[in-house]
Amino acid sequence: MGYVDKNGRIVIEAKQDALANNFSEGLAAVWSEDGTSYIDKTGKVVIEVPRPHGGPFSEGLAAILEEGKCFGYIDKTGKVVIELPSDYTGADFIGGFARVSRRDADGQTKWGFIDKTGKLIGPPNNDPNPPSPEP
């Protein structure tokens, strides 16, 4: 996948061995079998992550995923700023919180929110759409 500007001109050439996401906060995730790279709008690689899937940046953080599990979040320098247990799933940050889930010992999925320090806000519950915490 490559990128064109609003006039249809190619600004970043397509590569055969990678898939790319939309730009978010000035960066786009490009996935290959070697991991995830984040490129700027010139196509320059600015962050490399060894995990196969990096999510889009949201509020300065991007989820790093593998096989549907979220291992944590990186900042725009590529530094892991939030580590999660390997059985978590995660989503984008909105309003300072990200929705996460994990399965308990009985196989029930528990949902909750983390803040930007990785702290779980409130007890996890079975509701897949728990109310958002107040900012």
Report on the structure:
The protein is mostly beta strands. It has one domain (3-125): Methylamine Dehydrogenase, Chain H (7 Propeller). It contains no helices and 14 strands. It has strands at residues 3-4, 10-12, 19-20, 28-32, 35-39, 45-49, 53-54, 62-66, 69-74, 80-83, 89-94, 97-103, 109-114, 120-125. The strands form 4 sheets. Strands 3-4-5-6 form a 4-stranded antiparallel sheet, with no helix packed on it. It has a 4-stranded antiparallel sheet with strand order 7-8-9-10, with no helix packed on it. The model has no long low-confidence stretch (mean pLDDT 83).
Report mean pLDDT, rounded to a whole number.
83
Q: Tell me how many strands there are.
A: 14
How many strands, which pairing sense, and closed or not: the largest β-sheet? 4 strands, antiparallel
CATH architecture: 7 Propeller
What is the CA–CA distance across the termini?
Answer: 37 Å
Helix content: under 10%
CATH superfamily: YVTN repeat-like/Quinoprotein amine dehydrogenase
Lateral arrangement of strands in the main beta sheet: 3-4-5-6
Task: Provide a quick synopsis of the model.
With 135 residues, this protein is an all-beta fold. It has one domain (3-125): 7 Propeller (Methylamine Dehydrogenase, Chain H), CATH 2.130.10.
What descriptors fit this protein?
135 residues, mainly beta, Methylamine Dehydrogenase, Chain H, 47% strand, elongated
List strands and helices in order, with pairings.
Blueprint: E1 3-4, E2 10-12, E3 19-20, E4 28-32, E5 35-39, E6 45-49, E7 53-54, E8 62-66, E9 69-74, E10 80-83, E11 89-94, E12 97-103, E13 109-114, E14 120-125
Antiparallel strand pairs: 1-2, 3-4, 4-5, 5-6, 7-8, 8-9, 9-10, 11-12, 12-13, 13-14
